[in-house]
Amino acid sequence: MDVSTTQSAKVERYGEKGIEIPDNLIFIPIDFEKQSISDRLRESGFAKN
C-alpha cells in the first residue's frame, strides 16, 4: 500500500465515523521504512515550540 492510499484511507475513516477533520489537522505522508518522522515533520513545516 503506498502512502497516498493510506492518506486517503485515514480521511475516509474519519468520514465513516462522522468525525469532522479540524482545520488545524494536517496529514503528513510518510514511508516509515524509508523516512524519519523528524525529517518529514521538518520538511512539512512543523516547528517545535
Write structural notes for this entry.
The chain is mainly α and 49 residues long. 43% of the residues lie in helices and 0% in strands. The chain has one domain (3-43). It is built from two helices and no strands.
Estimated helix fraction: 40-55%
Instruction: Please write the string of helix (H) and strand (E) elements.
Output: HH
Number of helices: 2
**Terminal Cα span:** 33 Å
Q: Major β-sheet, in short?
A: none
Rg is: 12 Å
Unreliable stretches (pLDDT < 50, length at least 5) are none
Show the helix and strand layout.
Blueprint lengths: L2 H14 L20 H7 L6
Sum this structure up briefly.
The protein contains 2 helices and no strands. With 49 residues, it is mainly α.
List its traits.
49 residues, mainly alpha, flat
